Amino acid sequence: MTAPDDVSRPDKALYPEAGWTKADVVGYYRRVAEYMLPHLAGRPLTLHRFPDGLDGEGFFQQAWAEHFGERVERLAIRHEKPTGWVEHMRCDDADCLAFLADQGTLTFHRWAARSRALDRPDLMIFDLDPPDGDMGELKRAARRVAALMRDCQLSPFVMTTGSTGLHVVAPLRPQADFDAVRALAGRMAGRLAAEFPDELTTEQRIEAREGRLYLDVMRNAFGQTAVAPYSLRARPGAPVATPLDWVELDKGGLRSDSYTLENVFRRLGQKGDPWARMFDHAGDLAAARQAFEALD
């Protein structure tokens, strides 16, 4: 996908089982940049790096590194003590994306807020993972979250994580802080768990879930991240976190890892990016909270 001259150690196997090399990974990120970059623009990132491929040791990196130089923009953010100030990374262009892939980055995780309003998220995120890999259960949960979002005057969007789950995401106007967004998401999750107690739970402790699907809203917090749309995942087969149309949940055989480095561009060529204009539908958190309270 990418000429070897553009990549250090281009033949290094990053996905040994599938045979995908570093040149393939860098080439993927250059090619997918037009779809992926709008979802990264202005957002601090955390990288999941595997310099020696999936067979080697991986690690997460949230702080900008000196050797990145001007190729990666930095963004100083103040966290609560004891962390204090951290120079985070931003990636707003294809050269940056390719450079970070050349550093062994397989997966990009992004904040739910952008640099112009780091304390005011523009996304509400429900992270859904079935306890036993049951896609039917996962799809039902996603539709139930989406229905409640619509009842709250929010516009839900769905994405495979490329791992085992789905994300249901609602775009927001960046007006309220993280605590307010997480509080409403938590109340929504609690309502769903009360309505479907045999299938859904808000219990964080695995042993207390008793086989039910956990409605995880903890990514709606300052400094938390979620996998970025069109990011590869550090899993065999090079699966891709892929935005979907809601009707695609009805497809037989759909799995969270259905789309991969090998086949995602065929899909993009047919459908484009279902999330491309999601912020045309950004919701108002105060109105959503009022609508939620009116449901009782």
Keywords:
6-stranded mixed β-sheet; 6 helices; Alpha-Beta Plaits; 296 residues; 20% strand
Look at the structure and give the mean pLDDT: 94
**Overall shape:** globular
Our measurement of the CA-to-CA distance between the termini, rounded to an integer number of angstroms, reads: 54 Å
* CATH topology description of the largest domain: DNA primase, PRIM domain
**CATH class category name of the largest domain:** Alpha Beta
Number of DSSP strands?
14
Known CATH architecture of the largest domain: Alpha-Beta Complex
The helix count comes to 6
How do you describe this structure in short?
Helices cover 27% and strands 20% of the residues. With 296 residues, the protein is α+β, with helices and mostly antiparallel strands.
Outline the fold blueprint:
Elements: E1 13-15, E2 20-21, H1 22-40, E3 45-49, E4 59-61, E5 73-78, E6 85-90, H2 94-102, E7 105-110, E8 123-129, H3 135-151, E9 157-160, E10 166-171, H4 178-195, E11 200-201, E12 213-216, E13 226-227, E14 242-244, H5 264-271, H6 285-294
Parallel strand pairs: 11-12
Antiparallel strand pairs: 1-2, 3-4, 3-7, 5-6, 7-13, 8-10, 8-12, 9-10, 9-14
Helix pairs in contact: 1-2, 4-6
Keywords: Ligase
Protein name: ATP-dependent DNA ligase
Domain DNA ligase D polymerase: 21-275
Model description:
The structure is a single chain. The model has no long low-confidence stretch (mean pLDDT 94). The protein has two domains: 13-119 and 223-274, DNA primase, PRIM domain (Alpha-Beta Complex); 123-221 and 280-294, Alpha-Beta Plaits (2-Layer Sandwich). A hairpin with a 4-residue loop joins strand 1 (13-15) and strand 2 (20-21). The relative contact order is 0.16. It has a six-stranded mixed sheet with strand order 11-12-8-10-9-14, with helices on one face. Strands 4-3-7-13 form a four-stranded antiparallel sheet. The protein has helices spanning 22-40, 94-102, 135-151, 178-195, 264-271, 285-294, and strands at 13-15, 20-21, 45-49, 59-61, 73-78, 85-90, 105-110, 123-129, 157-160, 166-171, 200-201, 213-216, 226-227, 242-244. The chain has six helices and 14 strands. It is an alpha+beta fold and 296 residues long. The longest helix is centred in the first third of the chain and has 19 residues, at 22-40.
